[in-house]
Amino acid sequence: MHGVIRALLLSATVLAAAPAPAQVADLVSNEVLRVCADPANSPLSNRDGSGFENRIAEHLGQVMGRPVEYTWFPMVTGFARNTLFAGKCDVVIGYAQGDELVLNTNHYYTSTHVLVVKADGPLAGVESLSDPALQGRRIGVVAGSPPATHIARNGLMGKARPYDLMVDRRVEDPAGDMLRDVEAGVTDAAVLWGPVGGPLVRAHPGLKAIPLLKEEGAPRLYYRITMGVRQGEDVWKRELNSLIRREQGALDTILREAGVPLVDNYGKGLKEGG
């Protein structure tokens, strides 16, 4: 998960308080698209450029006629303070909507958590964490993440296997560990943030990712993902909003090609068009 989330909970859980408002309008580069990113947060971002957020940044930079320049920092406590708020970069490509530390653009996609199971196993038809088929099963879940509440509510926590959220992905790989454990039979299923689990499952042909679209009660399992800029940078936000609106089709294509499950704005069904 590392990020809704981003690795998701990517916003409020990983960012430190912003500094006092400054002359932020002077900080945005007019010549380079300066992106704040985690160097080892595959499949979202990676120093080698392989993440789908890298592809989105490159596409936007090409449309804007600006080369992309990265400031790298692990998506842990202090990420925003050492990148965006320090004026070293101007945008976080993926940021959960609603966090007040940054100024959010309009959202450019909505996704949800997924249940990862063996494609030919007895849980392949499960669509909800309330399914009786999950009773007595060992389910991997990121500790403290929204699905953990649903797992507890459905009486599944007794055999649940927790995995860490707050890690430096350069040295730890909880999402990869979760998938390998399902493959090896250490667990029967795993719940991951869709933009992480969906793309990663493609490297594990024996597994499938099922979008969790039928969960009831709080907390919600879907999130709208925006781009994050510094508070007060309304002109820059509007520029990005206009770009998102014009390039929405291209952004959808990048996300779908990566394996990100795209859902409607209310997390009730898959987004039309793919």
Automatic annotation (TrEMBL):
The signal peptide stretch is 1-22
Entry keywords, A to Z: Signal
Solute-binding protein family 3/N-terminal domain ranges (all copies): 32-258
The name on file for this protein is Amino acid ABC transporter substrate-binding protein, PAAT family
Its source organism is Cereibacter sphaeroides (strain ATCC 17023 / DSM 158 / JCM 6121 / CCUG 31486 / LMG 2827 / NBRC 12203 / NCIMB 8253 / ATH 2.4.1.) (Rhodobacter sphaeroides)
